[in-house]
Amino acid sequence: MSQPYYLQGSAFAIRMNSVVGWLARHGVSLMGSQELSVRGRKSGQMQRIPVNLHTYEGVQYLVSARGHSQWVRNMRVAGGGELRVGRRTRTFAATEIADDAHKAAVVRAYLERWGWEVNQYFQGITVKSTDAELLAALPDHPVFRVSVEH
């Protein structure tokens, strides 16, 4: 049995994520970036990573461009987390999208918005890919619906 797809970040990408996360914590959102905090499934500590929260048809989603990353694995266990820009922190519940047609529509819209930044993580899949190509890539890219708690 093969391991689920995950593309490890380069040293440069990890450093850039640190900078983007620091900026989001201090109130500066680059192109809509936010800092995601999710409880670690093993450590119990909050793990932080910058994300591009994506809105599709009025609903917010988190798309894992790099695949089955640690934040994805933690999210599956925690069922939610926090999104932060500056002092504004929003707690949310997360539901993983299983329906392929829905997930494909969200991923295609995500690639349309964020492709310039994330295309290299999708193994050749772009907004211009066929439906069949997109569907074939979906198992490698988890998508979560974000429901902000009030």
Question: Can you tag this structure with a few keywords?
Answer:
globular; 29% strand; seven-stranded antiparallel beta sheet; single chain; alpha+beta; 33% helix; 4 helices; 150 residues
Roughly what percent helix? 25-40%
Strand numbers in spatial order across the main sheet = 2-1-5-6-7-4-3
Task: Assign an overall shape.
Answer: globular
- Calculate the terminal CA-CA distance, rounded to whole Å: 42 Å
DSSP summary: helix tally: 4
> What kind of oligomer do you see?
single chain
Structural class by helix and strand composition: alpha+beta
Residue share in β-strands: 25-35%
Average pLDDT rating: 91
* N-to-C series of helices and strands: HEEEEHEEHHE
The main sheet comes to: 7 strands, antiparallel
Low-confidence segments: none
| Radius of gyration over C-alpha positions, nearest whole angstrom | 15 Å
What's the total number of strands? 7
